[in-house]
Amino acid sequence: MDFTTFVKPTNGGGDAEASNKSLQFWKHVEYIENHGKQEDDYEYCMTEFLRMSGIYWGTTALDIMGQLDRLERKFIIDFVKRCQCPTTGGFAPCEGHDPHLLYTLSAVQILCTYDALDEIDCEAVVRFVVGLQQPDGSFFGDKWGEVDTRFSFCAVATLTLLQRLEQSIDVEKAVKFVLSCCNQTDGGFGSKPGAESHAGLIYCCVGFFSLTNRLHLVDVDKLGWWLCERQLPSGGLNGRPEKLPDVCYSWWVLASLTIMGRLHWISSEKLQQFILSCQDLETGGFSDRTGNMPDIFHTLFGIGGLSLLGHSGLKPINPTLCMPQYIIDRLDIKPQILARS
Amino acid sequence: MGDSSDEEYLGADWLPYSERPEWKDVEPLAQDDGDHPVVSIAYSQKFREVFDYMRAIIARGEKSQRALDLTTDALRLNPANYTVWQYRRDVLRELKADLNDELEYLSEVIGQNSKNYQVWHHRRVIVEMLNDPSNELELTENALVNDGDAKNYHAWQHRQWAIRSFNLYDDELTFVDRLICEDQRNNSAWNQRFFVIKHLGFTPEVIRRELDYTMNRIRIIKNNESAWNYLVGVMRQGDSGSANLNSYPEVVAVVEELYQAGNRSPYLVAFLIDVYQEQALHLKASPDDQLARKVYGLCEDMAGKHDVIRRKYWQYVATHLKNQLSKATGGEQ
Asked: What stretches pass through the bilayer (chain B) (predicted)?
């Protein structure tokens, strides 16, 4: 799914063939490093509204590859700081835009990566997040009132990274709302009560329970099976029944299964083959499916998926927060993860 | 890409804002990317100009007809810019604009951007302001049926919102049935069916009817994940939510018949595994009882033949049952 309304153009062509079997490590480093530096102004303009997330995707992927120092720390931190809204405390994706929970989480993730939380007013961020919780426990994404389980995840993830989860929001009510989005047919979760189960939203909900230490509320065997069913003969995973496989869904399903201790239920080898087949051998970067155009979003989830599968040369990634594990350790945060079953 | 992409939206007779007399009092406000941007920015001229004027108008808080027209241009260039949508709503309120015109405009925009969060959110706010949902079923029907994506998540969310907020449940089952007939594997349609039935209430009659409906579909396409999930979901709603699969022996009998007739759809076999597991646990059978062995055998078939890619899951199911039964019978002794 496209969580961000960022639809990349796809062009069925491409050259992903037999040689696409090993990780093109340096090509990807180059791709991420140069991302946005090209004179591709149209894309740059069109993605302004999600720039903060774009930076999170790029820095995280590079850090997983041990190449974070290729980006300029000071410039990025200055950019992030400029995006904090002085009134609300939330972060905009880019100057001139309104603050939103999606970009607030991205901003906090970037600052954690650079160990730079002290550069911003963290209490203001906490106030922003707390102010978005609704009486039923759900969260608005911004003050304009869209409710979605994505925002429940963003809220608890932001507060966890700031070490303020328990003292700030009504966690019980937040839990109750996310549980009300569980579907009795397949054990999955949608964006709102009654909405169809969807792997991206399942990741948000399972991640939410991992952060609130409530994984016992999830029917992990039932949901685990539904998630396993997402694996197709190509090895790739889709987000809903009868949809096409996609690298980003592969991450969301894989991360959810990892959190639930069920990663081994799917075929890792076949999934790895699928992810590698989505590399662009010419430019670097990963696309959603074999042969399509790469983008920075799928590049993070391709690299992240390979890290979860234990690919050599990549740092371990935390499945709940989609950040390098060493940073989560440095922050002394321990999202709940179930033992292998 | 670049400019050519704009041309699709804004035609050749485009007059730059800087050359329009009615805009000469506005000083465009360029984007400040710092003196050392991560990226070198070469905005397309038209794009840059429209957004420079947009920034200027937002900065001075002008809410006028020309500001509204400017948001139209800006959103045509980038419908995902949620800040501009928000500003547009402020302008509409200030001008006390006819919101029916806005709905019409939005129907067109949604037709071209049906997978964009912002356009649907804007639609919802306008419908709430008007308190008139009379166009929403048709709008979402167009997005789901006529434009060809029957699984558009945004459209289904909007439809559920409209149905729930304005109590529009009456004809929804007819619509859902039509979509299921068109594509029996449409998981979104099955989900919508559950949404409607849950609202009507899972009375014993409703459950019977739904089980019949679903089994009739399964007879046509056995290997349909969505129908099987729906079937189990409905079966579990009986006895105020405490029913198990064996509460409906007639359904189990039909599935066993299909199995006897040679069908080995993984969903069908998975269903039988659940049924026999439930029986074994209910009877507190011993781990090497015949029922338990039936489950192990079916799991082995799945792992080895029908669902090899998920063989580790099926091995887990068998081992898990064995452990549970050992615990149960061990505890009794």
From this structure: none
In a domain, B316, yes or no: yes
CB contact under 8 A, B188 and A75: no
Whether B313 and A225 lie within 8 Å, measured CB to CB: yes
The structure tokens listed for A303 are 């690299």
Tokens at residue A168, please?
């700030």
Contact B57, B37 (CB under 8 A): no
Contacts of B206 (CB under 8 A, 6+ apart): B197, B200
Look at residue A43 in the predicted model and tell me its pLDDT: 67
Residues of B in contact with A46 (CB under 8 A): 78, 80
Residue A182 φ then ψ, to 5°: -80, 135
Tokens of A128: 């922003």
pLDDT band at residue A194 under the 50/70/90 scheme: very high
Distance from CA of A82 to the nearest CA of B (A): 10
pLDDT digits (tens, 9 = 90+) for A211-249: 999 999 999 999 999 999 999 999 999 999 999 999 999
Which tens digits make up the pLDDT trace of A293-315?
999 999 999 999 999 999 999 99
**Measured between CA atoms, how close is A38 to chain B, in angstroms?**
7
Measured CA angle at B142 (ends B223, A243), to 5 deg: 30
Query: How do residues A134-151 score in pLDDT, each as one tens digit?
Result: 999 999 999 888 899 999
Across chain B, what does the average pLDDT equal? 90
Query: The pTM is what?
Result: 0.90
- What letter would DSSP give residue B80? T
Measure in Å the smallest separation between the Cα of A166 and chain B Cα atoms: 31
- Domain chopping of chain A, boundaries: 24-30+44-331
Contact criterion met (CB < 8 Å) for B187 and A242: yes
Q: Are B276 and B324 part of one and the same domain?
A: yes
Q: pLDDT-derived band of residue A42, with 50, 70 and 90 as boundaries?
A: low
Domain end among B208, B243, B278: B243
Q: Does B48 touch chain A (CB under 8 A)?
A: yes
Interface check A77 vs B, CB under 8 A: no
Q: Is A127 on the interface with B (CB under 8 A)?
A: no
Residue B115: active-site member: yes
> What's the structural domain count of chain B?
2
